[in-house]
Amino acid sequence: MLKKATKLVGTMAIGIFLCMLDTTVMNIALPAIQTGLSTSLEQLSWALNLYTILFASLTIPLGRLADIHGRSRFYIFGLALFLIGSLFSGLAANVAWLIVGRGIQSLGAAIVFPASMTIGIQSVPMEKRTSAIATLGVTQGLAAAMGPTIGGIMTQFFGWRGIFLINVPFTLLSLVLCWRLFDLHESKQTKERLDIAGSLLSMLMLFSLTLLLVKGSDWGWTSGRGLGLGLLSLVALVAFIVVEAHSQQPMVPLALFKDKQFVGSAVVTVMSGIFLVALLVLMPSFFTKVQNKGELLAALMITPASLMIFIWSPISGWLLSKMGPRAVILMGSLSMIGGYVALSQMNPNIYWQVCVAAILVGAGYGIVIGPITVLAAGDFTGNLLTASQSVIGVFRQIGTSLAVAIFVSALSANLLTAKTNIWTFAQNGVEALSVTDKVKRDTLMQVKTQLATEKTPKHQQTTFIDKPKTQRLIRLNYQQALQKNKLTQAPAAVKRRIHQQVSQAVTTQITQDNRALTPVVATIRRETKQQLTQAFLRPYRLALPFTFGMLLTVFLFRKRRDYLNRN
After folding, report:
1. Cα end-to-end span (Å), the chain
2. Which end of the chain has less neighbouring CB within 10 Å, N or C?
3. How far is CA 107 from the centre of its chain?
4. Are 274 and 544 in contact (CB under 8 A)?
5. CA–CA separation, 158 vs 165, rounded Å?
6. How many angstroms separate the CA atoms of 334 and 550, rounded?
7. What is the pLDDT of residues 268-306, one digit of tens each?
């Protein structure tokens, strides 16, 4: 019996890993997908964000439906949807099909994720429950953290389609295991009823909130759509609380929030998720855009964070049983704060400094993420236990959405300022040169084109007017010289002599222009790299004071003596 329970927990871990992996695996492959499908980043962003929006919105109601109609059958249905969505996404011929595929994937994930937690926890005896919850909780954090690394590897070796098609063999394996391990004849919970009003309000609240967080920076936080979504989510939240307070079988039992430790777990889940995902989202973009690294190398450069989560997550469960929750949460919080101190002060061109920051953030997340899932479960049983895991899962998605919304929005504003500064700097530098107006215009056009990509030039240029341009200038000046001196009908020898003179004069001028441009363009390149680097680092500096907020949550958890006596 225990052996079957262990297999069930392992099978549920596969499902959770796949669901959480797809929240972050796509980010690093966006440039490759954009090129492959010949689409705009605006359209592609819907394929990226739809998964997070629907996953967060539907997890609680679909988890509840699974509780009522049979988790095993619902789970297999969810896996089948996830498989179909992965195939749609991986084989998509255009961005519309990719968006459809991601939508189907998210529906499957919203069924699989909460059911995985409940099936895994309830399959083990009470004395083994803590270790099962910790295992499944660690899997969630590890999957989200490994997303960019796995995405980089798959994109490098198998193309962008590989990031979706890799799900297929693992989903099929999970389906086979479920077919063998599940009791597919489980009865429906006839006494249980779906809280329809609560379901609709929770979906409306979470959908409007996550849509606002994901698209707010694009639409404008104070735009009509931004303010409308904010107001809608707030009204839906108030209505949801009122409905749940009077419901006999609420979607989210409000009794959960009477437990200080559950509230602390929810807050730490959101905050730690924000600070981890901010590292996973911004740094790979920094490596590819500013340092011109490939996608694979950029992903591998933040792998130390994932490695620390892998190492510390299992250790943190043991620490919890010895030190109690307060000490463990304090240790993880201090490590994440240390990571943000390093991110704020580091020179990102020196990799060991980046590595130290990634190690500290990853270790801090690894230390808190395993215990948080256990602590959220607390002493709950039955429906409260199931609800606690679904709600914490939703808070994890909100943390991811918040990280993307806050840090990508801050980065976008910083990049806009940086590009304005670079453009002003370039104009001033080029204007002071003793070159023709056309050369000035061409040079500034090159700068403008480069700024549009938000990338630094790969190599320092010494030739700005190349051979094809030189030949065109020689031909143009030659024709002008013939017409000016009325020599269009002159003998060939005269024309050759004029062509030679023009060619020599143009070549000499271009050599002088290239020599004059080299130091100025080199200065512009350095300024570009410096401005873009600061644009990427400034969000971490602004976030640093908020990381100390994690320390305030420590007092929401039980003291060592109280925790160990209860366990």
Report:
1. 24
2. N
3. 19
4. no
5. 10
6. 9
7. 998 998 899 888 888 888 888 888 888 788 888 888 998
